[in-house]
Amino acid sequence: YSREDVGKPGEVTVTADAPKILTAEFSQDLRQIHVVFDCNVQGPADCSVIFTEDTVQKIGRDANCSFVANYLVVDIGTSTRLTLDTSLTLTDASQVYRAQSNPALSPRASGSVTVDTSKASLK
């Protein structure tokens, strides 16, 4: 910077951290998977643009995704390939962002998580 630049108005862009996956668990009735993030999140209802192809096959092609506070709720579809040690992986272009943020300025959530089955009714 030069001496002339000091004191001139400028533009400052602040970028928040990308949402991080904390845990994932089956609902008690095993019809949903709840993915918990470290902050409130938003994203599309189409699970196929959130998860990798392998994960989409696990949760079922007609699975539906919704967002409630810091939860991504996956309504499990039909013809699933879920197992007790199922891992869910977000795509590199997951379109899951911090809630109320501008997607153009916000990093996307990424990563994977193994679904915890300890609280599910596996009877």
TrEMBL record:
<protein>
    <submittedName>
        <fullName>Uncharacterized protein</fullName>
    </submittedName>
</protein>
<feature type="region of interest" description="Disordered">
    <location>
        <begin position="101"/>
        <end position="123"/>
    </location>
</feature>
